[in-house]
Design goal:
With 449 residues, the chain is an alpha/beta fold. It is built from twelve helices and 13 strands.
């Protein structure tokens, strides 16, 4: 097939498409299209090669896979593409971190100038070295308790100052500031810049963490990065950084990458946020939500107080409507009548008791007086006693010239017996009622005694 070549015009440079790349000059440059076609034609002469490496990126778009393969020893990487028709023949469990061997063929897109490798076969060799190291470190840290929920510190409700560790002029910094200030305009930040990938990532992040942890006014620290492939996030799974975060006295929030990125820092930090935007929402409360909550709580409090006061007023009215509270003097009057009645009954009972016992006492007193010797003496009788105190009961006890002591109703006197009296002599024993003759005895007088 013959390609038409335009004729050169004398005195003018030839058209770019007619100049081969090797023959191009400043006056006769070749075109981008011709250069790309030349490169593509050269690359198409390459054959397929088998390459061993570790998958560090695996992005599925429209059934096709676009990824990167990393050298097992150095940091060298290549990009590869797997068409949907080829992907159906590959293992279904291929993922980031897998150690694989790949059959690739170089491919160059002349239109865009992009260079990549088309995959025709891929199979597992074993777990990638880096993934294997991370898994061993994950197991070790979990055994030491660095992943335990019990050791994670709660975040303050409203931090006074937020420490932020991120890349300088990064989108992550802008996202955190913008979303935090939208939620709470008065929030303050203290930002420490550090490399978020590469060899400087770990030492600079540790230094920034220690500086913010030593600041007394920093209440929480956010480590933020705007995502990336797992290879660029390896610094946030470094054991030195993880132990520094675990030893920090200030709560640390991990906001590394997107939802599908999961460095070990997410497990050691006190809180994992899927994105820097999510970190700002987790750390700073929404002022509008808090105001709405306060208004809701105030409304609930007002409602509860109103209900309580209304209920207490109703109870008070109910109590006031009771007869005992409406006319409290009626209760006193009723009780006063009962007290008076009981007092009258008590006085009556006491009076009857006193009268009964008074009568009984009088009867006993009368009986006692009737039986008393003093009563007998008061009626005129006397008691004769010898000098030895013996009572004279027989006249023979007092022969003539016997001194006796005679006791009468009022006192006593001494006498001398003249001896027994003849039986014919009148005697009280002969009077009715007392003596044999039946005569009523007369009251003896002093001369008779």
């Amino acid at each position: 097939m013959t390609t038409f070549q335009p004729a050169a015009i004398p005195g003018q440079p030839p058209p770019p498409d007619s100049v081969p790349p090797r023959d191009s000059t400043a006056q006769a440059p070749t075109s981008v299209s011709r250069l790309n076609d030349t490169i593509r034609g050269f690359i198409q002469t390459w054959g397929s090669v088998w390459v061993e490496g570790e998958i560090t990126a695996w992005n599925l778009r429209g059934g096709n896979v676009f990824g990167r393969l990393k050298d097992l020893v150095t940091d060298a990487t290549i990009s590869f593409r797997i068409w949907s028709s080829t992907r159906e023949r590959l293992p279904r469990d291929l993922k980031v971190g897998d150690h694989v061997v790949v059959c690739v063929k170089a491919d160059f897109f002349a239109r865009t100038g992009d260079f990549t490798f088309a995959v025709s076969a891929m199979r597992h060799v074993g777990l990638g070295d880096q993934l294997e190291k991370l898994e061993r470190l994950r197991v070790q840290l979990r055994a030491e308790g660095l992943f335990d929920a019990a050791r994670k510190r709660p975040l303050p409700f409203l931090p006074h100052v937020i420490g932020l560790i991120t890349g300088e002029n990064s989108d992550a910094e802008k996202d955190v500031h913008r979303n935090a200030e939208l939620r709470w305009p008065q929030v303050r930040f203290r930002t420490k810049y550090a490399a978020v990938q590469g060899d400087r990532c770990v030492p600079e992040t540790i230094a920034a963490l220690k500086a913010l942890d030593a600041a007394p006014d920093v209440d929480v620290i956010i480590i933020a990065r705007g995502g990336g492939d797992p290879q660029t996030l390896l610094g946030f799974s470094d054991e030195r950084l993880l132990r520094a975060v675990a030893a920090s006295s200030t709560p640390v929030v991990s906001a590394i990458g997107h939802e599908n990125d999961h460095p070990l820092l997410d497990d050691v930090a006190d809180l994992r946020a899927s994105t820097p935007t999510d970190a700002a929402k987790r750390v700073v409360p929404d002022v509008a939500e808090q105001r709405a909550l306060v208004a809701q709580l105030r409304a609930r409090l007002t409602s509860r107080l109103t209900q309580r006061v209304t209920h207490d007023i109703a109870q008070l009215e109910q109590l006031r409507s009771r007869p005992v509270l409406r006319t409290p003097e009626s209760l006193l009057t009723t009780r006063a009548h009962e007290v008076e009645l009981l007092a009258a009954r008590g006085r009556e009972r006491i009076d009857r008791t006193l009268d009964a016992h008074g009568r009984r006492t009088a009867e006993l007193r009368a009986t006692l007086r009737a039986l008393s010797p003093a009563s007998t003496l008061a009626r005129g009788y006397a008691i004769a006693q010898l000098t030895d105190g013996a009572i004279v009961r027989d006249a023979a006890q007092a022969p003539a010239s016997t001194p006796v002591v005679v006791t009468v109703g009022r006192g006593a006197f001494a006498a001398v017996s003249e001896g027994p009296i003849e039986d014919s002599h009148p005697s009280l024993l002969d009077e009715p009622g007392e003596g044999v003759g039946g005569r009523e005895p007369a009251e003896p007088d002093a001369a008779e005694n």
